[in-house]
Amino acid sequence: MPIEIPKDNWPGTVRTVTIGASASDGGTRTSTVTVGGQKNLPFLHFENKAPNRPAVAIEIKDHRPDDWSSLLLDAWGDVVNNPAIWAKAAEAAGADLIQLSLSLTDLDGNPTNPDGAVKTVNNVLAATGLPLMVFGPGQAEADNNLLVAVAEATKGERLVLGIAEDKNYRTIIATAMANGHLVNARSPMDVNLAKQLNILISDMGMPLDRVLMDPTTGALGYGIEYGYSAMERLRQAALQGDAMTQLPILVTPGFEAWKTKEAKVETGVPAAWGDWLERSINWETLTAMTLIEAGADIVVLRHAESVRRVKLAVTDLMAAAYTLA
Amino acid sequence: MALTGIQIYKLLPQTNCKECGYPTCLAFAMKLSAKQVELSACPYVTPEAKTQLAESAAPPIRLVAIKSDGYEAKAGNEVVLFRHDKTFYNKPGLFIRVYDNQPVETIKATVTEANAYAVNYVGMDLTVDGFAVASSSGDPNAFTAAVQTVRAASKRPIILMSRDVNVVKAGMNALKGETPLIYGADARNWEAFADLAKENKAALGIIAGTLAEMAELTEKIKAKGVEDLVIDPGGRDLGSGLAIGTTIRRLAVKKNFRALGFPVIAFPGDAGDPGMEAVQAAQAITKYAGFIVLDHFNPASIYPLLVLRQNIYTDPQKPIQVQPGIYEINAPKPEDPVLVTTNFSITYFSVANEVEGSGLPAWLLVTDAEGMSVLTAWAAGKFDAERIAKAIKSFNVADKVSRKRIVLPGHVAVLSGELEGELPDWEIRVGPREAVDLPAFMKQAL
Q1: B213 vs A111: CA distance, rounded Å
Q2: Integer Cα distance of B197 and A316 in angstroms
Q3: CA B319 remoteness from chain centre
Q4: CB–CB of B301 and A282 under 8 A?
């Protein structure tokens, strides 16, 4: 029985965004990451071969994290005491790029200062040739303070600066524009809020091929369905031709999954939750994979085993070794 | 093909009697074509029209149930490709596979453990749905023995797996009065399997390497009078599984292509590596499988998969909410603190479980945030100082406590100033951002 295979034919295309600049482009990166460029829904190669594979970032901190699951600290070991060495270890674990999260304070409780942040970023850039994303602590004043200094000190590297959100984006966008960097635009799990922020950023004159959008997500069990559906809808809006949603999507399943009780707590939890380590890795991996299937272009993870599984799965998804009819 | 509203209208009595609840037959026809109303609402429709309409009104994906004494796992009846377009209805069944060449004790242990498994998630007990028994030996007696071992350890529905109809027939004898899924029929053996399925009213699994072959097989088997079909179109890697699953769902839902309008069975267990098995099962859950067969039963993988299935199959129009109000946890006294959160069920259960687990007494004030989590509700203006103050008043919280202390979620620390304005005689405290950190906060800071 002959079957006509239904194929979508979308008018829109997701923008292509490249993170990191090599020497010939005015930076020092030995590799770059290019995402986006899709003309259809994820991995449906029988319509259009997906041009770029989703990238996997590993999150590191500027100093030993004091609120991370001990499973993560055990897995990374001593490298968490030195961001440059941690970055090397993340590269060895298969990261395509690094997300460096700056803390609000140092280990003694003193506020992180711009000089210190710049030094940390430079050390990480010297230690690895991978593209780098630098995220502030998430408080407007501190973020602006630290990210402006970092952006100026690393002019031309095409870092991703985060987080730009509706309550605080002007300073970060301005410094990214002035210094040849990119930004991560974060909004809370809503198509219209994501679009609104992209419009504001675009209105400032920021070229949209230097913007990633982060519609955020809940972890598995903690609202992933909201992030999942917001992402599916955003990608469909982009393919339908809505220019203000045609940006590659970054999400942070590592951050979300590792703050859940399932990943943080070993004792006093139901036996039905199973082995702590395997459960936690599944939590992170399944959160990430579910979002990749919904259209995520960059996932930021924390555990090396999750990175291994997600990369294997992405390779599997990018292969197109089948005939449909 | 599905009929248009006008085509349906031509088959209706066209009397505009209004007994269906709609003002005109045309309005009723439009609702029928949108599948928003049942034909049975029209008392005067002719039998001929009924047959014609039933054909077009049948769900694009047939509902197939695997049943045993007291249990059933059903899949199908889906109408959309994306959950945000409406909802996904029937959660795919998770089945654990055992093999007839495994030692009896191994089968018994696996099935007993998986059968007893239940994990509580936001107030619901989640379980696996059944078991698959695969013939590795090719021996009908060994297969029957394995089926009996499974049935002795669990009453849940069973999938019988062998391409040899005699082996499956032997297994069926151990499942009298049930509706198992027999798997399965292929281009070579399909007639015998169709006869067996028909005779025993079993659901029939069909295996074919291409969609065209699959469509041919389902048509031939339907012609023999077997309708409850489950299809295995191949595609054991993630890329092809996604492409094939998507194509089948599109053909069924968008083209009303009946020959492939059946639930799909997926075999993540074939992945071998348990970690990747979980990844494959996750894709099967989001991307259109109706039955999912796993080779490993490990709570550390089953729990996240059950939760994922629950999340994806939640109706996006109706977030799961709890009743706003003041909840007592661990028998609080008037001097104990008032914790505030929203009425999104996941938020509520995260907070309530932590406080309960800590053993510390507290009042939990659940505000009406239209079923949104703390941050989302705050961003949407559904969780602010005014609403919290209103909840304090409408639930008479001041009458229950002697020490007026309220703890805000850390994510909305920014509300504390405004809340002081709204509740001048209350002490406003800022708690942790995440529920998991509440017990430590309550011990140290309250």
Answers
A1: 67
A2: 36
A3: 15
A4: yes
Nearest C-alpha neighbor of A99 from the set A129, A59, A126: A59
Name the nearest CA neighbour of B82 among B286, B233, B252, B218: B286
Whether residue B245 has pLDDT greater than 90: yes
Report the C-alpha dihedral over residues A277, A278, A283, A284, rounded to 10 degrees.
Answer: 70
Q: Which residues of chain A does B255 touch, with a Cβ-Cβ cutoff of 8 Å?
A: 6
| Chain B touched by A84 (CB under 8 Å) | no
Q: CA nearest B272: which of B284, B261, B280?
A: B280
Question: d(Cα A180, Cα A157) in Å, to the nearest integer?
Answer: 7
> Chain B partners of A309 at a C-beta cutoff of 8 Å?
275-276, 279
**Residue A267 touches partner B, C-beta closer than 8 Å:** no
Q: Give the ranges where B287-321 is alpha helix by DSSP (H).
A: 299-312
Question: Interior CA angle at A325 toward A319 and B2, to 5°?
Answer: 115
Element of type H or E holding B68: strand B64-68
Cβ neighbourhood burial of A109 (10 Å; 0-12, 13-18, 19+): exposed
- Phi first, then psi, for residue A130 (nearest 5°) are -75, 155
CA A87 to chain centroid, in Å, comes to: 15
Question: Which of A44, A67, A139, A286 to probe the B interface (max B CBs under 10 A)?
Answer: A286
Residue that is written with structure tokens 């209805």 in the block: B89
Ordered domains of chain B (ranges, CATH) = 5-57 (1.10.15.40), 64-312 (3.20.20.20), 325-445 (3.40.50.11600)
| 0.85 surpassed by complex ipTM | yes
pLDDT tens-digit profile of B128-172?
Answer: 999 999 999 999 999 999 999 999 999 999 999 999 999 999 999
Q: Evaluate whether A161 touches A152 at the Cβ level (below 8 Å).
A: no
The answer, yes or no, to whether the previous bond of A85 is cis (omega within 30 of 0) is no
Q: What angle do CA B430, A216, A68 make, to 5 degrees?
A: 60
**By the 8 A CB rule, do B349 and B132 touch?**
no
Please report the pLDDT score of residue B2 as a whole number. Answer: 63
Residue B217: list chain A partners with CB under 8 A. Answer: none
DSSP B3: P
| Order of all β-strands in the sheet with B325-329 | B325-329, B362-367, B338-342, B405-408, B427-430
CA distance A64 to chain B (A): 19
Which domains are delineated in chain A? Answer: 43-318 (3.20.20.20)
Search chain B and give the residue with CA nearest A267. Answer: B357
Q: Please state, in angstroms and rounded to a whole number, the distance separating the CA atoms of residues A124 and A131.
A: 10
> Inter-chain contact B259–A236, Cβ cutoff 8 Å?
no
Of B219, B260, B279, the CB nearest to A285: B279
The percent of residues in chain B predicted with pLDDT above 90, rounded, is 80
What secondary structure does DSSP assign to A42-83, as a single string? TT-TTTS--SSPPEEEEEEESS--SSS-HHHHHHHGGGGG-H
Question: B437: which DSSP letter?
Answer: G
Q: How far apart are CA B39 and CA A82, in angstroms?
A: 69
Report yes or no: B185 and B204 within 8 Å, Cβ to Cβ.
yes
Residue of A nearest to B212 (CA): A1
CA distance A214 to B308: 21
pLDDT-flagged residues of chain A (< 50): none
Asked if residues B236 and B270 have their Cβ atoms less than 8 Å apart, the reply is yes
Query: Is A23 at the interface with chain B, CB within 8 A?
Result: no
pLDDT of residue B320: 76
Q: Which residues of A touch B233 (CB under 8 A)?
A: none
What pLDDT does residue A322 have? 75
Whether residue B300 and residue A190 make contact (CB cut-off 8 A), yes or no, is no
